[in-house]
Specification:
The chain is of the alpha/beta class. It has two domains: about 5-240, Aspartate Aminotransferase, domain 2 (3-Layer(aba) Sandwich); about 240-365, Aspartate Aminotransferase, domain 1. Helices cover about 40% and strands about 15% of the residues. Helix 1 (about 5-15) runs antiparallel to helix 9 (about 225-240), helix 2 packs parallel to helix 9 (about 225-240) and helix 3 (about 45-55) packs parallel to helix 4 (about 75-80). The chain is globular, with a radius of gyration of 21 Å.
């Protein structure tokens, strides 16, 4: 869309392809400036950012981490890898985010953190979550994989909790093929985050002239992306405003043209609230039940329109049953998993969107 190939050629010409070069720094600075985060560290995936967050949260075996079950597996895996236990609570029926009213009752003496997953780029109720976390001395980690450039009461998602995690996977709005970022908003965690990021060494201190040599000082791993990835991403970040505006136009067209189907009870459209500015990552609808969803997806596929469901709730998955526990009934989670359909949502859809909407309308009215 922009200067991706030019920047990739520049990265190659610079001769530093292994990461933490000029384009890694440019991306990190751009995200810091556009989110207000204290420190941003580019990673090779959002999964890597979440794994770093789990280490920074000092998750130990049997520590509990509260999160929704309706999320991608990496949200839970990051903590399970440290020996933590995901504690799943239900989601809200409107935003499909973690139900903040269910969190406090799930807290025990073993609870270490709350993970707020911003589903479809729509913000969780962060004021309440942060208040609960402060009351119980818990860390808040934002899984903002889908939330780049979305806001909550004027603040960018990922910049509100102690830590935030972004994804730049090719399925996201702003992409680098694979890629992610860790937003370190708690300044007390910055130094350690840099050490983890550099394989457990104080290499960054060495480069800044703060130590005369670098060595192994903590646990860590290889979390950096290569410079080719960062170069592609920087071009995308430069065009992020235009990308988001186009996606919002597509989202708004769906929302307006499907209003009648919603009002007549055929579907339910996404629910938004004032103060939550989304990034149009996804346009999802809810069908009345599982059988109607299955029939709708098949009919659209037969017409050449790719409509798909989303997550299988983690608490019902084979490893989720083994490694986690639930608090309370997850009835909304189960309902949403049975009824949700994602409509086609990608740049370049614009010339085809009218036909897609007509096919959807005709399906319900015929």
């Amino acid at each position: 869309m922009g200067k991706e190939l030019t920047y990739i050629a520049n990265a190659h010409a610079c001769g530093q392809l292994a990461g933490n070069g000029i384009y890694t720094k440019k991306c990190q600075e751009w995200i810091e400036q556009n989110t207000g985060s204290s420190k941003v560290l580019l990673t090779h995936s959002c999964t890597a950012a979440l794994e770093m967050a789990a280490i920074l949260a000092d998750i130990q075996p049997s520590d509990e981490v509260i999160m929704p079950s309706y999320t991608f597996v990496s949200t839970a895996n990051a903590f399970v890898l440290r020996g933590g236990i995901p504690v799943f609570v239900d989601i809200r029926s409107d935003t499909l985010n973690i139900d903040e009213s269910k969190i406090e009752a799930a807290i025990t003496s073993k609870t270490k953190a709350i993970v707020a997953v911003h589903y479809a780029g729509v913000a969780c109720e962060m004021d309440t979550i942060m208040t609960i976390a402060k009351k119980h001395n818990l860390m808040v980690i934002e899984d903002a994989a889908q939330g780049v450039l979305s806001t909550y009461k004027g603040r960018k998602l990922g910049s509100i909790g102690n830590l935030g995690c972004y994804s730049f996977h090719e399925t996201k709005n702003i992409i680098s093929g694979e890629g992610g970022a860790l937003l370190v908003n708690d300044k007390t965690l910055v130094d350690r985050a840099e050490i983890l990021w550099e394989k457990g060494t104080n290499r960054n201190l060495f480069f800044r002239g703060e130590v005369d040599k670098y060595t192994w000082v903590d646990k860590g791993s290889s979390y950096l992306p290569g410079e080719i990835t960062a170069a592609f991403l920087f071009a995308q970040l430069e065009e992020s405003k235009a990308i988001t505006e186009r996606r919002i136009a597509i989202w708004n067209r769906y929302h307006l043209d499907l209003q009648n189907l919603d009002e007549e009870g055929f579907i339910r459209r996404p629910v938004l609230f004032a103060g939550m500015e989304h990034n149009a990552h996804m346009y999802q609808i809810l069908l009345p039940n599982l059988s109607k969803r299955t029939a709708f997806i098949k009919a659209m596929k037969d017409l050449g329109v790719g409509c798909v469901f989303h997550y299988v709730p983690l608490h019902n998955s084979p490893y989720g049953l083994k490694s986690s526990r639930t608090h309370g009934e997850l009835s909304v989670t189960t309902m949403v998993a049975d009824r949700l359909v994602r409509l086609p949502m990608w740049l370049g859809l614009e010339p085809h969107q009218r036909e897609i909407i007509n096919l959807i309308s005709n399906y319900f009215y015929d």
